[in-house]
Amino acid sequence: MKLRKWQSTIHEIIFEADTRWGKIFDISLIVIILLSVITVMLDSVKSISAEHGKLLHTIEWFFTIIFTIEYILRLISVGRPIRYALSFFGIIDLLAFLPTYFSLLFPGSQYFLVLRILRLLRIFRILKLVQFLKEARMLMRALWSSGRKIAVFLFAVLLLVTIFGSLMYVIEGAENGFINIPTSIYWAIVTLTTVGYGDISPQTGLGQVIASLIMILGYSIIAVPTGIVSVEMAQAYKMSVSTQACPQCSQEGHDVDAKFCKDCGARL
Q1: Which residue ranges does the chain devote to CATH 1.10.287.70?
Q2: Which end of the chain is flanked by fewer CB atoms within 10 Å, N or C?
Q3: What is the 3-class SS of 191-251, one letter each residue?
Q4: How far is CA 180 from CA 32, 66, 169, 170, 192, in A?
Q5: What is the largest CA-CA distance in the chain?
Q6: Nearest to residue 169, comparing CAs of 178, 177, 160, 161?
Q7: Nearest one of 234, 237, 48, 7 to 137, comparing CA atoms
Q8: Residue pLDDT, tens place only, 65-87
Q9: Long-range contacts of range 130-135, CB-CB < 8 Å, 24 or more positions apart?
Q10: How many helices (H) and strands (E) does the chain have?
């Protein structure tokens, strides 16, 4: 579907950072996002809310109306609005104002508006930091590729803490704080991850020996997921990406020499 001239103009201003008006719009949006998040944070402080609650409430609705209008403009300026609405940034943009409307039915839900801070991810595109876009893309690809390996690793860790927790329950018993197996598994997780809250600790000699082994094992285990992701990152290198957004589906992250969208095939 070919966009009309007025839709193309709106798309260029809202989605593109290459033009003067597009950059002005995006920088203004970043400022508004920061101010709205600060407003929500101030409203959560009881002393400030008690004195300036009505003013903060009015300001919050002002920002909500702005984000609502902006979201509608984003939908009507792309050829495939459903595609944009279901995209990562589309969902984030929706969450930027939806909690305020929910607060009319569910008081307190407006504090979820701090999710607006996620919209600052657009700053990479706005400031033309292409090298950071490239690195972010590589990191996401590496995390996705290493997902199965990390899942297997976490399953192995789960087996270890279950075995160690059950063992410590038998050795230490309820008199030393290991009142049941779930509590003992909790202790094993805290110990294996080297967090060590200290709310439960082994008292017997054998229990302390096992705890020492778990601590040493924890240091070696921590390095495993880091190594997995590092290997995948080394294999995830791709060409540089541009900041151009597709006029149909609003997909970003295209190669600098791309002529068509890698997602929907529309001409860029």
Answers
A1: 145-234
A2: N
A3: HHCCCCCCCCCCCCHHHHHHHHHHHHHHHHHHHHHHHHHHHHHHCCCCCCECCCCCCCCCC
A4: 51, 53, 7, 9, 18
A5: 79
A6: 178
A7: 237
A8: 998 999 999 998 888 888 888 88
A9: 130/240, 130/241, 130/242, 130/243, 130/256, 131/240, 133/241, 133/243, 133/252, 133/253, 134/238, 134/240, 134/241
A10: 11, 0
The verdict on pTM exceeding 0.70 is no
pLDDT at 56 over 50: yes
Reply yes or no on whether the pLDDT at 111 is more than 70.
no
* Residue 209 scores a pLDDT above 90: yes
Q: Do residues 204 and 176 lie in contact, with contact meaning Cβ atoms separated by under 8 Å?
A: yes
- What pLDDT does residue 239 have? 45
CATH code of the domain occupying 145-234: 1.10.287.70
| Backbone dihedral angles phi then psi of residue 267, each to the nearest 5 degrees | -70, 135
Residue 126's pLDDT is 53
Amino acid identity of residue 208, one-letter, is: Q
Please report which confidence band the pLDDT of residue 186 belongs to, taking 50, 70 and 90 as the band edges.
very high
Enumerate the CATH 1.20.120 domain ranges in the chain, comma separated. Answer: 5-126
220-229, pLDDT tens digit by residue?
887 777 777 6
Where is 172: in which H helix or E strand?
A: helix 147-172
Q: What is the pLDDT of residue 78?
A: 86
| Structure tokens that stand for 124 in this block | 């990479």
- Give Cα separations from 33 to 16, 53, 64, 76 (angstroms): 18, 19, 10, 22
- Residues in contact with 243: Cβ distance below 8 Å, sequence separation at least 6, in sequence order: 16, 17, 18, 125, 128, 130, 133, 252
